[in-house]
């Protein structure tokens, strides 16, 4: 099976917004108040015809004017919309790109008409498929194509398969390879538009519709037709497979429930519809920022709809929003709301800044949430017990039937309220974590800028760093503003929770059996929510425990390198690090280790070394933490060429090691193969061979400075590294000279418990070794000559300097 890859070249995309105004329907007798100009501008006239010219120029009119990528008037057909705003995107789908097209608008504005269409005016779903099959048919390569489609609806935050006769509730799963998937959703292989049309009609007939005041057959659910085009490129060897995904979404009406005279079930539908749409709006806002500015938090998890659309909305996806509006004067508010939303979809704002917590604070947030929920559950349990006693003592009268439904509604709303709170809290936590990362990057950038500024002729680098810094600042502000919005939503949610609680209390006071049942179901729902949180907490615990484990390994490593516990704690204290008690476990058989490399016994005194002068921190900022680092040249030129920013959350420790090696004593890199041993160095070689008995001598020429250390030969150290390697600790190293960046044709590999280091040609008198960890080492103690000595070139002396990100 070939690999699935996104196309090699990525182009940045912006959300395309098209507005489509439908004609007045027969039922509507109002005035047409929408005008479309230049295929881009939409003007909504004031519905109040008594307003005159004077009102208009004095800005007393409600007339609104917007501009979009495309605008279509009442006479435009679906084909017009398709050809101008969608068609080119469909070509990309066949090439392996993702695309999402969604119709947004209030009830009766023409979303379903636009997406599905009629026999005479086929909608975007049909037209897109036509193009796909057309392109496949006309394709003159020998590539194999396969088109599959699935059709689902999200109704009241529950997913149903529209291609199944009686679909049960479907669940979302996070698949490590495929991303978010709907477990159990049918995916049907199709080879003609006719077949898809059949499926669409079938699916549409199963959609949940209701008659609202505005639309007789109003869709109450969000429908997602997903078309996957898999293409096997035969001419390549091995055959490559691309997969393009097109999601066509017919959203439910965006109106407020109150505006459609809804009550009961309809009211609840309305609330859920709006929750999903709000979540979608938030994602689109965040994505808009991200496309321009990089790392911004996108709150996908706030609704099922946004989780389903996540893949299509992010990554290599072109997203097109079709905002549908009615021209009727009585729908002025709906129209303006839709246009405002569409307008926002392309806007980017600047925002205020807020302080941020730490990772520990996030964990305690989770703990607080769980505590609150547990409190709620135990209170309800107590109330149930009390009620049960009352019921045993005095059998209650039968209540009226409608009380049951009232209680059910109350119970459902309470559960939704809890769920919403959980989602908001999670979103807040994720947002904070994103900003925490942003702030770390900001700090690194500030350090890097400060360092670069003292170096002459580094204007371009400083400029790049500064523009990145601005991007990060903007992201932080944006995320903070989103956080404030969420915080407000949490407050509203809390208020509602209080109201619901009062209603429950009242019901408990006044009623018997039915209330008991109501509380029972409430209790059950809270229990479920509680379990979910416990699960999340367990996952967090797991992360924390693996971080602790990583710290333990670090302890072992440092101790194996010759530092004792006291020294490590002291070093930590010097750097302001509190060493956690739990991490100080007995080292893995290393406690009896005799310091393997006592450099102090040798002739390598600190006085032989010059302290490192460093732009190193800045450079490391440029490079992603990757084991490929060794293959990149670190000279100044390439540094500029690969101006790639490290986004990893890495707290690193650098050791700068100076040695008196002559820059001219230089031998080109000869081999990529790890070799056990070290090269013929200067006058120190013999002494080194004595002090590094586990390394064999390796003669490569008089000036070769290659050397390697194999930890396998030091069993105890190997233990530590083996454990660390299981955790995939990345170790990159960089080589710095005192005068200029030279090269990094050197490698560190660490496979199967072995860490081998080879410095290709040490045309350098300063060596830097970076220890980076994606596992979240809080900080490495400052290295000393002892703890790094096993990886030193034999002639290297002892001047260390720590650099931390
Ligand atoms: N471009 C159009 N030309 C003619 N009639 C249209 C057009 N767009 C919509 N209509 C008519 O308007 C009515 C409402 O359209 P539609 O059902 O597509 O709205 P909707 O936005 O999907 O509503 P809901 O959100 O309630 O499902 C239908 O009777 C439909 O035939």
UniProtKB/TrEMBL annotation:
The keyword Lipoprotein does not apply. Belongs to the TRAFAC class myosin-kinesin ATPase superfamily. Kinesin family. KIN-8 subfamily. It comes from the Eukaryota. ATP binds at residues 105-112. PANTHER family: CENTROMERE PROTEIN E (PTHR47968), KINESIN-LIKE PROTEIN (PTHR47968:SF29). The keyword Hydrolase does not apply. One of its GO terms (cellular component) is microtubule. Pfam families: Kinesin. Keywords: ATP-binding, Coiled coil, Microtubule, Motor protein, Nucleotide-binding. This is Kinesin-like protein. SMART domains: KISc. One of its GO terms (biological process) is microtubule-based movement. InterPro entries: Kinesin-like_fam (IPR027640), Kinesin_motor_CS (IPR019821), Kinesin_motor_dom (IPR001752), Kinesin_motor_dom_sf (IPR036961), P-loop_NTPase (IPR027417). Residues 363-390 form a coiled coil. PROSITE patterns: KINESIN_MOTOR_1, KINESIN_MOTOR_2. GO terms for molecular function: ATP binding; microtubule binding; microtubule motor activity. Residues 14-348 form the Kinesin motor domain.
């Amino acid at each position: 099976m070939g690999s699935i890859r996104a196309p090699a070249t990525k182009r940045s995309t912006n959300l395309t917004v098209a507005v489509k105004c439908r004609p007045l329907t027969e039922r509507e007798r109002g005035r047409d108040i929408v005008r479309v100009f230049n295929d881009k501008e939409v003007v909504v006239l004031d519905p109040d015809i008594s307003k005159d010219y004077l009102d208009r120029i004095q800005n007393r009119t409600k007339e609104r004017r917007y501009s979009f990528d495309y605008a279509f008037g009442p006479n435009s057909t679906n084909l017009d919309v398709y050809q101008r705003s969608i068609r080119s995107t469909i070509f990309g789908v066949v090439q392996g790109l993702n695309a999402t097209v969604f119709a947004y608008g209030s009830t009766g504005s023409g979303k379903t008409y636009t997406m599905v269409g009629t026999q005479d005016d086929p909608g975007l779903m049909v037209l897109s498929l036509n193009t796909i099959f057309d392109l496949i048919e006309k394709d003159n390569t020998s590539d194999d194509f396969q088109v599959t489609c699935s059709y689902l609806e999200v109704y009241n935050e529950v997913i149903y398969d529209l291609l199944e006769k009686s679909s049960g509730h479907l669940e979302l799963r996070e698949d490590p390879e495929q991303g978010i998937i709907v477990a159990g959703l049918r995916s049907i292989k199709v080879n003609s538009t006719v077949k898809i049309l059949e499926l669409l009609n079938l699916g549409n007939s199963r959609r949940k519709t209701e008659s609202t005041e505005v639309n007789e057959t109003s869709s109450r659910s969000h429908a997602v037709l997903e078309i996957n085009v898999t293409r096997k490129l035969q001419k390549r060897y091995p055959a490559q497979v691309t997969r393009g995904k097109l999601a066509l979404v017919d959203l439910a009406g965006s109106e407020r429930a109150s505006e459609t005279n809804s009550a009961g079930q309809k009211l609840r539908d309305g609330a859920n519809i709006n929750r999903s749409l709000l979540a979608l709006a938030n994602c689109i806002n965040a994505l808009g920022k991200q496309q321009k500015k990089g790392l911004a938090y996108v709150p996908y998890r706030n609704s099922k709809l946004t989780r389903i659309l996540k893949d299509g909305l992010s990554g290599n996806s072109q997203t097109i929003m079709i905002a549908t509006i009615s021209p009727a004067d009585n729908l002025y508010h709906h129209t303006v709301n839709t246009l405002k939303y569409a307008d926002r979809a392309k806007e980017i704002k600047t925002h205020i800044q807020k302080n941020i917590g730490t990772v520990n604070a996030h964990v305690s947030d989770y703990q607080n949430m769980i505590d609150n929920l547990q409190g709620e559950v135990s209170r309800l349990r107590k109330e149930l017990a009390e009620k049960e006693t009352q019921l045993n003592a005095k059998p209650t009268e039968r209540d009226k039937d409608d009380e049951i439904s009232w209680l059910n509604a109350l119970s459902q709303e309470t559960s939704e309220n809890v769920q919403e709170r959980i989602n908001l809290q999670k979103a807040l936590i994720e947002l904070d974590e994103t900003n925490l990362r942003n702030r770390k990057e900001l700090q690194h950038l500030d350090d890097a800028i400060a360092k670069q500024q003292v170096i002459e002729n580094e204007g371009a680098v400083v400029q790049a760093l500064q523009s990145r810094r601005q991007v990060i600042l903007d992201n932080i502000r944006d995320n903070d503003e989103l956080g404030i919005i969420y915080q407000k939503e949490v407050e509203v949610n809390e208020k509602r929770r209080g109201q619901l609680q009062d209603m429950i209390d009242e019901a408990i006071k006044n009623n018997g059996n039915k209330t008991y049942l109501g509380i029972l179901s409430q209790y059950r729902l809270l229990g479920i929510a509680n379990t979910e949180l416990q699960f999340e907490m367990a996952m967090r615990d797991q992360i924390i425990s693996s971080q602790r484990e990583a710290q333990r390994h670090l302890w072992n490593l440092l101790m194996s390198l010759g530092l004792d516990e006291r020294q490590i704690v002291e070093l930590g204290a010097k750097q302001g690090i509190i060493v956690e008690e739990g991490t100080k476990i007995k080292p893995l058989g290393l406690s009896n280790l005799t310091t393997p490399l006592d450099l102090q016994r040798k002739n390598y005194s600190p006085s032989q070394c010059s302290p490192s002068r460093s732009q190193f921190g800045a450079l490391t900022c440029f490079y992603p933490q990757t084991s490929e680092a060794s293959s990149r040249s670190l000279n100044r030129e390439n540094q500029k060429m690969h101006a790639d920013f490290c986004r990893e959350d890495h707290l690193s420790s650098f050791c700068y090691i100076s040695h008196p090696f002559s820059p001219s004593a230089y031998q080109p890199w000869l081999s990529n193969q790890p070799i056990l041993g070290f090269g013929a160095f200067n006058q120190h070689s013999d002494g080194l061979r004595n002090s590094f008995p586990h390394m064999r001598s390796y003669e490569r020429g008089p000036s070769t400075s290659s050397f390697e250390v194999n930890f396998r030969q030091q069993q105890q150290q190997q233990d530590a590294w083996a454990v660390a390697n299981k955790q995939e600790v990345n170790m990159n190293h960089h080589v710095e000279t005192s005068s200029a960046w030279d090269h990094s044709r050197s490698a560190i590999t660490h496979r199967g418990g072995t860490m081998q280091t080879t410095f290709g040609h040490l045309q350098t008198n300063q060596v830097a070794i970076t220890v980076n960890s994606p596992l979240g080492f809080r900080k490495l103690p400052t290295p000393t000559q002892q703890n790094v000595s096993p990886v030193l070139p034999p002639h290297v002396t002892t001047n260390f300097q720590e650099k931390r990100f």
